[in-house]
Amino acid sequence: MKMSKWTVGIVTISLASIFFSGCWEEGGKGGEKGVEMKIYIIPIGDVEQDPLLRLSWALREKFDGVFEIGERIPLSEDTYRPERRQYFATPLMGDLKKSIPKDADKVLGVLDVDIFVPALNFIFGQADLGGKVALISLTRLREEYYGNNENRELFMERTLKEAVHELGHTFGLRHCANAKCVMHFSNSLMDTDVKEADFCENCRKELELRIK
Ligand SMILES: [Zn+2]
Ligand SMILES: [Zn+2]
Q1: If you measure from the C-alpha of residue 87 to the centroid of ligand 1, how many angstroms do you get, rounded to a whole number?
Q2: How many domains are contained in the chain?
Q3: How many A from CA of 138 to the centre of ligand 1?
Q4: CATH assignment at residue 169
Q5: Domain for residue 8, yes or no?
Q6: Ligand closest to CA 195
Q7: Looking at the domain assignment, is residue 194 inside a domain?
Q8: How does pLDDT run along the chain (212 residues), one tens digit per residue?
Q9: Which bound ligand lies closest to the C-alpha atom of 9?
Q10: Distance from the alpha carbon of residue 180 to the mean position of ligand 2, in angstroms
C-alpha cells in the first residue's frame, strides 16, 4: 500500500505549549515481510542508557520481534533552530533513514532534545506511516521538565507509550478514537497518561494483520 498523505493531529500555536503537542506522521513505503522482525533502538546524540535498555525489554512484549540497541548516531546541530530553541524533527528523521542497519525491519530513534515540526509547538515523536523509521524525544516526558519532582516510573511509562505509538504508525496504524488505546493521539501529556501502553482490540488485530 502506498501512502503519501501527511497526517497532522493538531495545528495550533499557543503560548501554553505544555498543553499542545503532537506527533506527525508522513507517508512511507509499504509494510515489510519477515519471519522474525528485528527492530533497532538507535540513540541520537546524548541519551542515557537506562531508558533504552528498559525499552528494549518492554517493547518485546508489545511487538513480535527482536529489539536491539544500535550504534549511536550524532545529533546534527544543523537541525537546531535557535529562534525556537528546538531541533527540527524532519531532517533528524532523514539522518535516521541514512543510518538504518541492513537487517533492520524498523528503527526507533531516541533523542533527548526538544523537537518540533513547523506547524506545531513541539512533538513527542514522529513516524513514517507504514515505513521503517520512527523517532521519540524523552525531553518532555520527564516531570522535571515541568518543574515537578522526578518520577522515574512515570517517565518510563510515558517513554514506552510514545515508543509503542510511533512504532505502531510504522506498521501503518493510524490514530485511534479510543482514549485508552496506545494509538490515541496525545494532544498533551495528560492524554499520554490516560492511555495505556497497549493496543485496543481493533488496533491489535490490525497490527497482527500487518506483521504477518
Ligand atoms: Zn501519532
Ligand atoms: Zn486502538
Answers
A1: 19
A2: 1
A3: 16
A4: 3.40.390.10
A5: no
A6: 2
A7: yes
A8: 444 444 433 333 333 333 344 555 554 444 445 568 999 999 999 999 999 999 999 999 999 899 999 999 999 999 999 999 999 999 999 999 999 999 999 999 999 999 999 999 999 999 999 999 999 999 999 999 999 999 999 999 999 999 999 999 999 999 999 999 999 999 899 999 999 999 999 999 999 998 87
A9: 1
A10: 8
The CA 84 to ligand 2 mean position distance, Å, reads: 33
Ligand 2: distance of its center to the CA of 182 in Å? 7
CA distance 143 to 69: 25
Q: Could you identify the residue written with the cell 510511533?
A: 166
Catalytic residues: 166
- Domain holding 202, by residue range, is 18-211
For residue 174, the ligand closest to its alpha carbon is: 1
- The C-alpha cell at 188 is 498533551
Report yes or no on 1 lying in a domain.
Answer: no
